[in-house]
Amino acid sequence: MCYKCNKKNKLEFSMNNENILVALDASQTSIDVLKRAVQLSKIKKYKLTLLHVVNQSMFENFFPQMQKENITQSIYHRLASMLEEANASELEYSIEIKEGNTAETILEMASNINACLIVLGANSKDDFTDKQLGSTAYKVAKKSVCPILFIKNFCDKPYEQILGFTDLTDTSRKTMQFSKAFFDFAKIKLVHAYKQLTDFAITFYNANHDKETARKQVKEQAQKVFETFRNEVDIEAYELLESFYNINDVLLEISKKENAKLVILSSQGIGGVSSVLNGSVSVYLLETLESDVFFHIA
């Protein structure tokens, strides 16, 4: 991991794992995935490892005359050309070309180089109109033990305004502390959506006479817990949102309203759907957010 406990038992960013792994496929959007990784590497002064996983069966089926060495050399030159286009000349970097299952190879490489971050496209489409995760991205998210930056948009200027979605759990606290250290060049706005009592729930419990009082208590409790959490993670910008029905819709709405370029989500691992933001909410947002997503596994 890229964080450790100091003497006060607080999480702090560790500078020991200064290696970003960027996984690149053959899609046209790969150059923007690389540009974002280069951008972060320059800001953080980290080493960059480029990885391309060769689908050997595809070449054997459709390009049977091509020699393995020629394929590898062609890919290497293409990646080197992309690095030049991404203005990565002053960075320390390495290029890795591997054969095998793409998701498994990405995870293995991340482990081997002790990567502090995996950067990859959300899918293998040739444009960013489709924001949903492809099978490889989902498998990496499901099994990764290090943070992942999913790229869903063209790369322009560095991230400046970041939204951090939280459910106020200990897992989310670790995520926000990690994110604050990693994205120390940007401003993070902490966002929490709480569930308010609906008219149906109040009527169901025959509590219409106490409706306003009950809702006021729910809001005050949410404000109190949120304020405690915010002070613990020491993030100045924040917004508390009220949701009567679907928390997903409320969070997606603020992401669009703020024109967020990056949203922070956290998880304990989505294999058993035990992620934060009420379980399936985190997975749903990972799929549907139009912004890039920083997915931290705590």
Automatic annotation (TrEMBL):
Q: Which family does it belong to?
A: Belongs to the universal stress protein A family.
Quote the InterPro entries the UniProt record gives: Rossmann-like_a/b/a_fold, Universal_stress_UspA, UspA
Q: Which domain of life is it from?
A: Bacteria
Q: What is this protein called?
A: UspA domain-containing protein
Ranges for domain UspA come to: 18-152, 159-293
Organism, scientific name: Candidatus Marinarcus aquaticus
